[in-house]
Structures are given as structure tokens and as C-alpha cells.
Design goal:
Layout: E1 3-6, H1 16-30, H2 36-40, H3 47-55, H4 64-82, H5 92-103, E2 107-111, H6 117-123, E3 132-134, H7 147-156, E4 163-167, H8 170-178, E5 182-186, E6 197-199, H9 205-212
Parallel strand pairs: 1-2, 1-4, 2-3, 4-5, 5-6
Helix pairs in contact: 1-4
The protein binds 1,6-di-O-phosphono-beta-D-glucopyranose (B16) and magnesium ion.
Residues 7-10, 19, 42-47, 50, 75, 112-116, 136, 169 line the site of 1,6-di-O-phosphono-beta-D-glucopyranose.
């Protein structure tokens, strides 16, 4: 059995701007400088690790309780922004690509750092598209640790060598390679020096996956 494990944010959908708006609100409240370039460093990074990156610019140390409070506030802003999402926020091409792979009998999974994965999939009308969902709610270590992808493969009942990971984050490519997966990079991840395949957009994926799994 062959499988494709998709990262969510930056591959299936584009919530970067929503994360940015939410982080910007809490950073401004704390008087901490934050811009889109710093936001780029948060791609694929867990919520608390993202906050640590933002706090690099803070003039003082924050206690764990303070950090939890800020992270919770950011998340509640982000979740209310997610409520504005709907099926129109999904590129037509993405559903077609998923349909093509499913018709071939390829198993499909999500491997995302986000604890909001299930909500996002529901908003996009993709709740029933995946055979397994591994996300921020079932892992203890964030990318570049391979845990999220290894759990996805385990849920699907496949070995890493029989699955390919699709990622937009450099840390996600590191995670895939560390787990023994082949990987496809899109966006910034396409520039990773060790990436197995690079694509410009999702419509190129069925051909790449077809080539990988020809036996
Ligand atoms: P949450 P991915 C990641 O999703 C995002 O790229 C990253 O910016 C975010 O901080 C992380 O999820 C955690 O998200 O706060 O919703 O749990 O790219 O791994 O699908
Ligand atoms: Mg991503």
C-alpha cells in the first residue's frame, strides 16, 4: 500500500496571514516588534515554539504562565479568524489532486503541527478526504522531529519508505527525511538542499507521486 502524507498550512491551505494577524495583535499588545519576515520563521513550528521565536525580540524574560496566557489569546484570535474560512478558500486544484490520488488507491493522510487541524479540514469541506489525521493534538515533539509523520504512517499502517511527505516548511522537510520518508517540497521547502522532489504547485503532484511509486 502506498501513501501520501500532506502538511496542512502552506500545502492544502494558506492560513499564514491569519496566523500573522493573530500573532501581530498579541505582539503589539506586549510592545514586541513582529513583522512578516519573522512570521515566515513560524511556518510548521508549534504554537509555543512560535511564541519563543517572537519573544526573542522581547526586552525581558516571560514566565511559563505568561507565555501560556499569550499563546491562548493568540489562539482564540486565530480560531475566530478561521471561522471566516469556507470551502472557497480551497484552490480547485487541491481537491482534484486528492481525487486523482484516491482514485489510484493511494492512502492519504495529514501530518500537521496545528492543533486546529480538524477544524480547518471541516471548514474546507475536507473532513472525509483523509484516511488518517496526525496533528498537534497527538504529538509531543514538533517538526523537525519526525513524530507527526511517523504517527501518520503508523495510523495508515504503512512503512516510511512506502509514503511520501508533501511540505512547505524547511523544518518539515528535515522532519520527513529524519523519519526515512521521501519528500516533495513546495514553496520555500522546494529550495531545501536535500528535498527529494520539488514542485511549483499541487497540480504537479500526481505525476511526481506516480513516478515514485512505479515498481
Ligand atoms: P496551531 P503545519 C503549523 O501547521 C503552522 O505552519 C504554524 O505556523 C503553526 O504555528 C502550527 O501549525 C501550530 O498551529 O497554533 O493551530 O496549533 O504547517 O504543520 O500544517
Ligand atoms: Mg506547513
Amino acid at each position: 500500500m502506498k501513501a501520501v502524507i500532506f502538511d496542512l498550512d502552506g500545502v492544502i491551505c494558506f492560513t499564514d496571514k491569519l496566523h500573522y494577524k493573530a500573532w501581530k495583535t498579541v505582539a503589539d499588545e506586549q510592545g514586541i516588534y513582529f513583522d512578516e519576515k519573522i512570521n515566515d520563521r513560524l511556518r510548521g513550528v508549534s504554537r509555543m515554539a512560535s511564541l519563543d521565536i517572537i519573544l526573542e525580540r522581547a526586552g525581558r524574560a516571560y514566565s511559563l504562565d505568561e507565555k501560556k496566557e499569550i499563546a491562548e489569546k493568540k489562539n482564540s484570535i486565530y480560531v475566530s479568524l478561521l471561522d471566516t474560512m469556507n470551502e472557497n478558500d480551497l484552490d480547485d486544484g487541491v481537491k482534484e489532486v486528492l481525487d486523482t490520488l484516491r482514485e489510484r488507491g493511494t492512502l492519504l493522510a495529514i501530518g500537521s503541527s496545528s492543533k486546529n487541524t480538524k477544524k480547518i479540514l471541516e471548514k474546507l469541506g475536507l473532513k472525509d478526504y483523509f484516511d488518517a489525521v496526525s496533528d498537534g493534538t497527538n504529538i509531543t515533539r514538533s517538526k523537525p522531529d519526525p513524530e507527526v509523520f511517523l504517527k501518520a504512517a503508523q495510523m495508515l499502517g504503512v512503512e516510511p519508505e512506502d509514503a511520501i511527505v508533501v511540505e512547505d516548511a524547511l523544518s518539515g522537510i528535515d522532519a520527513a527525511l529524519a523519519g526515512g520518508f521521501k519528500c516533495v517540497g513546495i514553496g520555500e521547502a522546494a529550495t531545501h538542499p536535500q528535498v527529494t522532489y520539488s514542485i511549483k504547485d499541487m497540480t504537479e503532484l500526481p505525476e511526481v507521486v506516480g513516478g515514485v511509486f512505479v515498481s
